[in-house]
Amino acid sequence: MNDRWVVAACNEPASVRIIDTVGETQVRILDENLRGVEGMAIAPDGRRIAVGGWYSRACHIYDLASGRREHTFPGRPFEFTSCSWERTPSGELLAAANQGGEILIGPPGERPLILRPFHRSLESVAVAHDGSQLAAAGRDGRIVLARLDADGRYEVPPPNGQSLLWSCRLPDGTFAIAAEHAVGLYDPSNERIEWSPVPAMVNRSLRSEEIHVDPAGRWIIAGNTLFERRQGAWHRQHELTSDGATVTSARFLPGGTALVVGYASGRIVRLHLPDLKPVTEYHFSGAASVSTLSIDGQGTFLAAGFENCRLAVWKTDSGELLAEAVGKQPARSLTFCRSQTLVSTPDLTAWTWRSGQLQIVRKWEGKHPASVCGFPDSSVVLAIDPKAPSLTLIDVENEEVQRDMPIPWNGRGLPQLDAVGSSVSFLDWKGRICWARIDRSETGWGRSHLWHGHGDRTYAVAFATNNRALLSVGVDGTLRNWKNPLHRDSSGVIRDFTLAGLCRKKPVCLLAGTSRCELWDLASKERHPLTFPSPLAAGDQVRAAAVNDAGTLAVVATHQRIFCWNTRHSALKWYHEAPGLFDDGHLGQVRRIAFHPRRPLVALVDRGRNGARFQVWDIRDGKKTREESWRAPQGCRAAVLSPDWRWLAVGEPEYVTIYDTSGHRAVARTTMQGGWQLSFADNGRRLFVLSAGGSVYDWPWFHGKPAVPWGTEQVPVESMTLSPSERTLLMVNVDGRLTLWQVATGQRYYSRYYGNAKYASISNAGWLALSAPNYIRLERWK
Question: How many domains does the chain have?
């Protein structure tokens, strides 16, 4: 369509018509049977239209050229009132609102997600132009603004044409994933995926309910098979059978030291890991086939549901039976909340126990989720309903608090909470692995913001072009302009970049995206594009970027090449093929670029499948002057040079080792589960290590002292780094909180939430850079 044509809905006679505004003539009647049309939205390509019907109780999609009905959003028992259709970076997104307080949102042709922002009638709905946000106006006047985008999304090819079914984000940022007949481990940092077949899944596909991963990310159960994580893959360990009995449910204890297994025979037993020796058996006189199990966050209580509708709770360590009850139907999912509260499905019910009996505290009529997940140390649970589909945050202690999670979930599989309840993993409409943070800050739970709006009724909402504001019209006829609290595109936020290389001493920053780079003068706000000699090939993405202390040279490493620019003229100085292959034929993953403190040299520090390496290049002419490799047979997680280039630290799955770069000699080693990030301090005599579990350790290795835990963080750490002066340690937690610590005293002196920030760095020139999945945030620090 173009600006000449208008689509109009008429109720007398009932029809949707296309009108030529130039000739003022009717071109076509689209549908003669549509009555009470309340909402229409033209597709971004101008070829289709979505029509929300009052009497049809459906949202139909028509081809404007032929008038043919192409698709219908699932019919609901409510009248549709509004539609919004936008083109987003992930494809087209259509939203339709109805009188039942529901918003149906998803790509046209796919099964939409259902949101209920008010659980009351809706007047209007709008999708932001980039698809990152959703706004809705209620008949009671309130306005809700919600985040729609994921904080991370990855395309992972399944094995042998199978379909992805399930994913769970682990504490170290990797993902446990499952396909129809296999489980896998995906590392987004190097895009590596390793699949392991599930022997029992030959004649049928896995189900999400049969997959469980321990909170530490070391073990996973798929079907009746237990796998252990070693060297970046799941390795089959045991078949969980008891005299041929079928396993019906299994749960890991916190820490991954034991496993509780329920069988079809009604037997429940706690097994020690890794030898699977029986430790405790849980007896119950009314036991039948076990339908589900649950363990609380501290590992104190165990709950079980049985196929004969019975429920029971025990002490995990002693096996003492604490309480029991009989429900109306078998429990399919259980989870614990604080204050000794147990929540069960499919009839969403909260229980507590006293005097040996489980008693109903609250029951939610009309809610029948397939699964529930509890948040540690909280009264909030996440109810998952794949049939709707919908995800709802429910406060067990406050019946009025119910918030649907607005995430691009495709309704397949069961979304999974991480170990600390700070994010949820799921598959989106394109089948990609995604994760989204859940706001647990002082502002409340969820991913939305609520206004009171226009008194009795808000008629319409719409986003401003740049998403900085939200416009609304009320029953009083006023037009209001609301500042968008979810909009982060401020002067300090730069979109479409993922890496920031701050100059240590000058107000200069090198910004890098997947295929382009820019040099920013932070004092004058001038931007200078750094042009590659030719477009980067598919898969040859930017992996590391750095600026020297004088701010005169910028170096960027991609998968296959290294580039050096003169920043004064934004001119390419030289480039070469790099980093090359390791001895095993595996391409290295460059993670660090280090300038020599006194000589005109630059080093690329990369890691491969079986080791670490650094290559030294002469800045003046781009010639490689040195290359050294260190073997790490179990796999290399991280590698970093000391500031004087004398020492190299290498993180392996079970060790962290310090090498003398001049002689390949190992000078110190400590046992630690996965050194994922490393930072030297005290002129190389001290090393800070981020372990696989999200804990930070201080290792004064030069003085022969052991590594000790650092700080008092209760939430796992996503990343950490030192300031150039080595006096401040920066940590970014998995919930997006940045904390700064004095290295000399070990005291925390700054803390602030930064949304979905993942990495942070600071310069002596007084600038702070925070990296998120799709933007960089720059702020003045001093």
Answer: 3
Position 300 in a domain:
yes
By the 10 Å C-beta count (0-12 exposed, 13-18 middle, 19+ buried), 631 is classed as middle
Note every long-range contact of 381-388, with CB atoms under 8 Å and residues 24 or more positions apart, other chains counting. Answer: 381/335, 381/337, 381/343, 382/415, 382/417, 382/424, 383/345, 383/348, 384/414, 384/415, 386/411, 386/412, 386/413, 386/414, 388/113, 388/114
pTM (2 decimals)?
Answer: 0.65
Same-domain check for residues 263 and 331? yes
Same domain, 204 and 265: no
In this structure, are 274 and 340 located in the same domain?
yes
d(CA 614, CA 616): 7
Cβ count near 514 (within 10 Å): 14
Are both 164 and 35 inside the same structural domain?
no
781 lies in some domain: no
Other C-beta atoms within 10 Å of 569: how many? 9
Q: Which domain holds residue 185?
A: 149-225+409-446
- Tokens 């429920």, residue located: 311
Q: Is 711 inside any structural domain?
A: no
> So what's the pLDDT on residue 285?
85
Residue 264: give its domain's CATH number. Answer: 2.130.10.10
Report yes or no on 512 lying in a domain.
no
User: CA of 478: how far to CAs of 142, 472, 474, 645, in Å?
Assistant: 15, 8, 6, 66
On whether both 99 and 155 belong to a single domain, the answer is: no
User: Within 13 Å of residue 417, how many CA atoms lie on the same side as its CB?
Assistant: 24
Closest CA to 305 of 351, 254, 339, 259: 351
Same domain flag for 76 and 136: yes
C-alpha pair distances (Å), 612 with each of 300, 605, 628? 42, 8, 9
> What is the edge-to-edge ordering of all strands in the sheet holding 624-631?
589-595, 601-608, 611-618, 624-631
What does pLDDT average to in each consecutive run of 10 residues of the chain (782 residues)?
A: 62 66 64 72 86 79 83 78 83 88 88 79 86 86 84 85 90 89 87 86 79 90 90 88 76 90 92 91 88 91 94 94 92 88 92 89 87 84 88 79 81 85 86 81 56 76 82 83 62 72 87 81 81 76 85 87 86 78 48 87 80 86 86 79 90 88 87 81 89 85 90 75 86 82 82 76 82 78 58
Strand partners of residue 80: 98
Residues 170 and 284 in one domain: no
